[in-house]
Each structure stands twice: as structure tokens, then as C-alpha cells.
Design brief:
The protein is α+β, with helices and mostly antiparallel strands and 117 residues long. The protein contains 1 helix and 5 strands, in the order αβββββ. Helix content is 26%, strand content 33%. A hairpin with a 4-residue loop joins strand 1 and strand 2.
């Protein structure tokens, strides 16, 4: 029968109030290590929310896409995938003609615009 190997226990230093383990979120050490990351995460979440609201507002509206190499195309915005890899559009008007439905790669889209009511 194998003998179990003891596992060391990592103990955090006592917190500023003396009874808990870890650090106070208001301590200078915590702010230096993680305070900026929490603020950055909040900003990123706000920007992501605005972007998703913009996508929701564009659904079903005529939209102009500016693509690489200076190409501009018009289409009716349909949807975007979760990973922001592609936009699904309908009635895509290109210099070569009209496509009933298409996917535009997000990497090729430099900008898009649509009118709000």
C-alpha cells in the first residue's frame, strides 16, 4: 500500500484588520497589484456593452460598410457572431452586383455606419 505524500499548505499573511487572510482592496499593495486591472475590466465591459447595443440598433437597417482597399458596399445589417468574426448582411450591393445574403469578415471591415430614426 503506497504511503500518501503530505501536501504543504500555503498560508496568506494576515490582512490589515488582523482576523482575515489576504489584503484589503483599499490597501496600497492591492491597488498596485490588481487595482488597475479591476478598473480596466470595468471600462472594457462598458465598451463591450455599447458595441453590442450598436449592433442591436443596426439590425434590419440599411448600412454602409467601408472595407479594405477603399471598397464601399451597402447592405441591410442582419447579425454578428459572438466572436466578432463575421457580419451577416442581406441585399449586399457591390460594384459587381447584388447578393441576396452574404457574410462580411470583420477583419475586412474598417468601419460601418447606419442612420438612426
Amino acid at each position: 500500500m503506497p504511503v500518501p505524500v503530505p501536501v504543504g499548505v500555503l498560508r496568506l499573511p494576515r490582512g490589515p484588520e488582523g482576523s482575515s487572510r489576504g489584503f484589503s482592496p483599499t490597501s496600497p499593495r492591492f491597488q498596485a497589484l490588481l487595482g488597475g486591472a479591476a478598473a480596466t475590466q470595468g471600462v472594457r465591459a462598458t465598451l463591450r456593452q455599447r458595441y453590442l447595443r450598436g449592433l442591436a440598433a443596426a439590425r434590419g437597417r440599411p448600412t454602409r460598410f467601408c472595407l479594405r482597399a477603399g471598397v464601399r458596399v451597402d447592405a441591410v445589417f442582419g447579425a454578428a457572431d459572438v466572436e466578432a468574426v463575421a457580419f451577416q448582411v442581406d441585399a449586399l450591393r457591390t460594384p459587381l452586383g447584388v447578393q441576396a445574403a452574404a457574410l462580411l469578415r470583420c477583419a475586412d471591415v474598417l468601419a460601418y455606419s447606419f442612420l438612426l430614426d
